[in-house]
Amino acid sequence: MRDITGAPQCPPEVAELRDRVAAFVRDRVLPHEPALDAGGPGAAVTLRRLQAQARTEGLWALPLPTELGGQGLPLRSYAHVAEAEGASDHGPAALGSAPLLDALMLWRHGSPGVRDRYAERLVAGEIRACYAMTEPDVPGTDPSLTATRAVAGEDGTWRVSGRKWFTSGAAEADLVTVLARTDGGPADRDGLSLLLVPSGSPGFRVVRELPVFGASGQGEIALDQVVVDADHLIGERGKALAVAGERLQLGRTLRSLRWLGQAARAFGLMRERAMTRTRSRGPLGDLQLVQRHVFESLLALRTTRPLVHEAVARLDAGLDAAVEVGLAKVAAARTLQQVADAAIQVHGAAGLGPDTALPALFRTGRAARILDGPDELHITSVARRVLRAT
């Protein structure tokens, strides 16, 4: 049966791959979500087992560069797979796609030593990386106010001091890319640099976990005179925002694709509930208010998906995609929250408890409107670009 949510057509070989990934997530990842959500040693063992199965089935690291051990699936093709993969928050990690942003950043902007030492191990799943940009008491929408500093020593090393928070995967990371000021003064957009910091370095500390609506995964870190080798500078000194911008555009687009996958999952749960839940006067789906939830959710999915794939197409073509990515990010975050909320309403009390994925999907949708830049940032940024266009 065709996908009622309106997934775009793709080449047969990509459709076959997408279906295999969807089956892997449905049959292997989803049953283990409670254990993976719980974290700890048990989650790590489960994740490693899933990763081994993904390798065996030829689904490992699909979008990662072939030079690093990935399968080199182009972005435009991977976009179809990313929705299926992203139906679970754990899908990208289980299938080896999670390090895509870090691997590309090291491959494109890292020194030869950094590439040789870390890039292939990252793709192989031997080590993990995370990205630390946001700081307490500093607006995340204005990186020029970054307070973390890196001072160059006479021996060529850097000494990094500062604090970061809401850093995804900080507790398990072996490497942390840190945005720090190396030159210039406060509010100077130049003078910011990216440094790759091994988490085992003296002076590096995970301060605490920062649960998002009760869910783990985010952390606060502190750096106290952490010594970083000179060749661990990512990109040019003082030019971090160019690298960060490249990373953020792709990252926001990938997140949008995965949010679409989760919204489609919530829609499927709502549709199933409406068709199978009976009352004394017939199926729940006979109620016009329930039908409205179904209609509005389907409308949101079908109008959002083209926006996201338009952003994919422009990025894949190497074109400026600032407007398209901004539209896609806001629309996908809103759609996930809207559809998950409607699905909860149709489920009633059952939608609030632990027996469905709906609380987690709603939590992701609400957080999505702030993470990777709040809605307000993207709205004003897109509007300004449109108003300045000639």
TrEMBL record:
<dbReference type="InterPro" id="IPR046373">
    <property type="entry name" value="Acyl-CoA_Oxase/DH_mid-dom_sf"/>
</dbReference>
<dbReference type="InterPro" id="IPR009075">
    <property type="entry name" value="AcylCo_DH/oxidase_C"/>
</dbReference>
<feature type="domain" description="Acyl-CoA oxidase/dehydrogenase middle">
    <location>
        <begin position="130"/>
        <end position="226"/>
    </location>
</feature>
<dbReference type="Pfam" id="PF00441">
    <property type="entry name" value="Acyl-CoA_dh_1"/>
</dbReference>
<feature type="domain" description="Acyl-CoA dehydrogenase/oxidase N-terminal">
    <location>
        <begin position="13"/>
        <end position="126"/>
    </location>
</feature>
<protein>
    <submittedName>
        <fullName>Acyl-CoA dehydrogenase family protein</fullName>
    </submittedName>
</protein>
<keyword id="KW-0274">FAD</keyword>
<dbReference type="InterPro" id="IPR006091">
    <property type="entry name" value="Acyl-CoA_Oxase/DH_mid-dom"/>
</dbReference>
<dbReference type="InterPro" id="IPR037069">
    <property type="entry name" value="AcylCoA_DH/ox_N_sf"/>
</dbReference>
<keyword id="KW-0285">Flavoprotein</keyword>
<feature type="domain" description="Acyl-CoA dehydrogenase/oxidase C-terminal">
    <location>
        <begin position="242"/>
        <end position="387"/>
    </location>
</feature>
<comment type="subunit">
    <text>Homodimer.</text>
</comment>
<dbReference type="InterPro" id="IPR013786">
    <property type="entry name" value="AcylCoA_DH/ox_N"/>
</dbReference>
<keyword id="KW-0560">Oxidoreductase</keyword>
<dbReference type="InterPro" id="IPR050741">
    <property type="entry name" value="Acyl-CoA_dehydrogenase"/>
</dbReference>
<dbReference type="InterPro" id="IPR036250">
    <property type="entry name" value="AcylCo_DH-like_C"/>
</dbReference>
<dbReference type="Pfam" id="PF02770">
    <property type="entry name" value="Acyl-CoA_dh_M"/>
</dbReference>
<comment type="similarity">
    <text>Belongs to the acyl-CoA dehydrogenase family.</text>
</comment>
<dbReference type="Pfam" id="PF02771">
    <property type="entry name" value="Acyl-CoA_dh_N"/>
</dbReference>
<dbReference type="InterPro" id="IPR009100">
    <property type="entry name" value="AcylCoA_DH/oxidase_NM_dom_sf"/>
</dbReference>
